[in-house]
Structures are given as structure tokens and as C-alpha cells.
Write the C-alpha cells for this entry.
Amino acid sequence: MALHLISVVGSSPGVGKTTLCRAVAQWLTSFGASVDHFEEADILTRAAFRPVAEEFAGETAAVQPATLIECTRAYVAESLAAGKDYLVTDALLPFIPSLVAWGHDEPALVQVMADLPRAVRPAQVTVVYVHDDPEAALRRAVEREGDAWEDWYVRKLADSPGTRGVHDLSSAAAHLRSEGELTRRLLARAPWHVLNVNVGTLNAQEAYAHTRDHLTNMLGLPGRPLA
């Protein structure tokens, strides 16, 4: 069985990316497959990504694109050796929000999108891009997490080299809107399958059903999991 990497990424906080990623990992596991569910925080704790954690902990708190690419290569090689069938990752490939926040410009990101497909071979990659209007998504995130989260999020963006123009939720939404356009341009360059999930028109259950049905057809899975 080929190794499949399913990367669930979101256009902004509040789109339900993590919930969807978890549901997809559980669903694939129910078929008896060997699944690695790579959660968002795992990039700072997984052995393959130790160089990323070390650079992030450095004085600039930024990571070089080459480091991300080589660590991704190591992660795929490690997963192949372990006999994994599926890698279901939360906010991993193609690293666009992090690279933007660290101050890398579009030409640098274009190069990343040229290098990553070679780094993940022979894994077959699907990017599930979960998106909504940034203002609506951020309002949901604030309702869920509270005002303290809003202050933390705005401050996090304002303190990063590539997003220093953010100073409130409105400017954060404007940044995310621009970043979403960049993401779509960059994903169009990659030889990967991209599934767009618009949660502005779908609730969480519908978004999962849409993603599950699409992956069922694409991966050639049976309609029902193992009992």
C-alpha cells in the first residue's frame, strides 16, 4: 500500500481545522490502517522535527525553509520505515502561515513549493484546505476561546517579522485574507491534490462528510469501515 499524506490546513483560526483533522485520522484508523495523526503542536516534539524546534527556540524564533524541507523529508522516511499507511497532519505542509510570519517573501515560498514535492516522495499528498471569511472565522475563535485569546493572537502576529502590521482583529483579518490568496496561488503550483472545504457554507458535520466522501473516492476505500 502506498503512503498517503493528508495535510489539513486552515485559512485562519476558527475554521475547524483541528476538529476535521482529528475526525479524518479516526476515520482512517477505523479501517484498520496504520495512521499517524500529527497534531499541530507535534512539530516542536517529534524527533524528525528537532532541528525546527531548535531553530524556533533560538534568538530570532524563526525557522529557515531548508530546515523545514529536510525535516519533512526525515518524517516521511521515518514513516515509511515504520510501515505507516496514512499521515494525517494538522497545519503541517506546506507551512505557509509560519513562513509568512517569519518574514519569508513570496519568491522564497515559491522555492519551498518547488522543493517540498521532492522531499515527500514517494508519499502521495492531498491538501485539505479549510477556509472561510477571516472575519467570520476569527469571531468564532474569539467566541470559543475568549477575549484573552484575541489579545494573545493579535500580539503574536504583531510580534512576528512578517505580520507586524497587525494591531487588532480587523487588521488580522485583512492579513489572513491576503495570506489566503497567497496560499491558493502557491498550492496551484504543487503537483498535489487540493480539496477545498468552504466552512462558510458547511457546518462541522457537513465539512467532515464532504471530506470523507471525497477521500473515500480518491483513495479507493470501501464505503464502510471495519466492524
